[in-house]
Amino acid sequence: MAIVKPIKVRVGNLAGLRAGLDYIKDDRKTQNGALVHCKDLLKGKEYQQMVITKRAFHKDTGRQYAHFVQSFDPRDNASPELAYKIGQEFIKRYEHFHGFQVVMAVHTNEAHMHVHYIINSVSRENGCKWQSSPEDLKRMRSLSDELCLEHGLSVIEHGKKGHRSYGEYAQTASWKRQLAQDIADNLTLSHNCVDFMHRMDRLGINAYVGEKSVLFTIPAGVYGLQSERKCSNRKLMSYGDFSIENFKDTWNCNTALARIGRSDMQLLQEALLELGQLHCPDTPDRYQDMYFRDIAFDGMTKQEIEIALSRKALDSMLGKARQATRKGTGREPAGGTTFSHHSRYPCRGAALAGGATKRHIS
After folding, report:
1. Distances (CA, A) of 294 to 13, 288, 290, 297, 341
2. In whole angstroms, what is the distance from residue 20 CA to residue 113 CA?
3. DSSP reduced 3-state for 40
4. Residue 228, Cβ neighbours under 10 Å: how many?
């Protein structure tokens, strides 16, 4: 078995980063450097490249790095080579390391084999600072358990308070993945935060949309949960773009597309006929009749019409763009233009300027 622990790092200057790297890379502890592995760094240039990343984003002050140790039980007799392999797989499979530079070093100078991980505090991809919560530490420990089992090592069946087994981790990942899917599906169909909250409420999930974040409350019973759970949109970023900006952009885009659709009577009639054929196959022109006779639609039907208009408006706009390109160049745009309304997770949208509205669906 292996125990993962964070090492407290004081807020300091770059000298602390250099000292930490020198300590874990010590030749006397790492078989002359053979047990040192780098992610997104050149071996021997770890410190210099981490500093370059920090200065590129103007973030070379404050906390300089994060430090974790993974210690193996001496009774497992884990070899240095096995510890090194597990360390490499740990870096590759722990999703929170994505975008961050990492140095891993296996130390053989003590009775128990242990692996040090030092992570640059600044992401090389977007300049975000490293953040690690108690929940993240539990996921690290659960992944460590999983790797130990895969390599024939023991795991702690009943860990200390706060430590979760891999089975518990998998269960958490499962309900979060389902939540992410439901959010993505309903975000794609909604036009504003109220519409989105109503849609999530029909699934039994309370969604509170704030100025900077969205908080979801999932009651016991939903997704097989034994107790109520809370989850913010920020904790779902590993499943897709669930930033508050993307929520707002998607709503603006859907609203603008629907407005464009309502201004085109032909698109409106096509949308009404298609929905009528879908929901009222015996009377496919029912929705068209209701619209022209000023009969109000119920809330759900109105929303479906809005979404259908959004999709037809976008398809129409893309079709016109392709035609204009063919006329101008005599060929299709390179690579073509595609847009999926059924993508698994949301993509950042862009608000589109709509034309004048002839008549609103009421």
Report:
1. 70, 10, 6, 9, 30
2. 19
3. coil
4. 12
Question: In angstroms, rounded to a whole number, what is the distance separating the alpha carbons of residues 170 and 176?
Answer: 10
Give residue for tokens 């023991």: 154
Phi and psi angles of residue 312, each rounded to the nearest 5 degrees, phi first = -70, -35
Q: How many CB atoms lie within 10 A of CB 97?
A: 18
- Please give the model's pTM, rounded to 2 decimal places: 0.46
pLDDT surpasses 60 at 340: no
Counting every residue written for the chain, the total comes to 362
Between helix 46-56 and helix 14-24 the angle, nearest 10°, is: 150
User: What does the DSSP assignment read for 233-290?
Assistant: GGGGGGGS---HHHHHHHHHHHHHHHHHHHT-HHHHHHHHHHHHHHH-TTSTTHHHHH
DSSP string, 53-100: HHHHTT--SS--EEEEEEEE-GGG---HHHHHHHHHHHHHH-GGGTTS
pLDDT in tens, 273-331: 776 777 677 777 776 666 655 555 555 555 666 666 666 666 666 666 667 666 665 55
Please name the residues in contact with 281: beta carbons below 8 A apart, sequence gap of 6 or more.
none
Pick the closest to residue 349 from 214, 170, 191 (CA basis).
Answer: 191
Rounded CA separation 222/145 (Å): 27
Q: Distance of alpha carbon 126 from its chain centroid, rounded?
A: 15
SS (H, E, C) 90-146: HHHHCHHHCCCCEEEEEECCCCCCEEEEEEECECCCCCCECCCCHHHHHHHHHHHHH
Residue pair 333/325 in contact (Cβ under 8 Å)? The answer is: yes
Taking a C-beta distance cutoff of 8 angstroms, is the pair 115, 105 a contact? yes
CA distance 202 to 189: 14
